[in-house]
Every structure is written in structure tokens, then in C-alpha cells.
Amino acid sequence: MGNHVERPTKTCPFCQEEILAGALKCRHCQSLLVATPREESEDRRVTYIVDRDLLRFAKFAAAVVAVLSVVGLILFGFNLEETLERLKDA
């Protein structure tokens, strides 16, 4: 028969899956299971981690929307001078 060694396990506090007792990161939900020095202190501030690629995509999407808005305004005949005259009359 094989040399099967029974390893101690614990439950991940985030996804409730069974993981090895010495695990530093859950293999199911990828959550860190060790406290960082900031978490150990009495500081109660929340730190958000933003993916740089996601932020870069959001900036790109905003730029595309802005360009399409300007092109749409030009194509549909938006005249800034006429609009300003109407505002003055109102």
C-alpha cells in the first residue's frame, strides 16, 4: 500500500473550503490567510487595492466616450455660438 500521510487541515474563513493548516493563501478563493503588519495594528483604516490594468481600461473607456460625444455633437450640428446666443436671450 502507499505511504499516504494525513495532513492537518482547516477551513478557509472566507469561502469555507477545506485547506491545509499551514496555508498562507486559500487555493480556492485566493484570499490571504495571514495578517499583514497593518492588520495587526490598532489602525482601523481600510486600504483598497486597485488593479492597474482595470484603471488603465477605465481611463481609455472615458477617453473613447469623450471623443465619441464630441464627434456626435459635431455630426448632429451642435453649434456652440448659437447655443450661447439662446442662453443670452433666455
Features:
3 helices, 90 residues, single chain, mainly alpha, two-stranded antiparallel sheet
Provide a descriptive summary of the structure in words.
A two-stranded antiparallel ribbon has the order 1-2. The protein is elongated, with a radius of gyration of 28 Å. With 90 residues, it is mainly alpha-helical. It is built from three helices and two strands. The mean pLDDT is 83.
Provide the fold topology.
Elements lengths: L8 E3 L6 E3 L16 H4 L11 H24 L4 H10 L1
- Broad shape: elongated
Largest sheet, spatial ordering of strands: 1-2
What is the mean predicted local confidence, pLDDT? 83
Which structural category do the helix and sheet elements fall into? mainly alpha
Q: Treating each run of at least 4 consecutive H or I residues as one helix, how many helices?
A: 3
Amount of helix: 40-55%
- Determine Rg (CA atoms, Å): 28 Å
Q: What is the makeup of the main sheet?
A: 2 strands, antiparallel
Compact overview of the structure:
It is built from three helices and two strands; from the N terminus they run E-E-H-H-H. By secondary structure, the protein is mainly α.
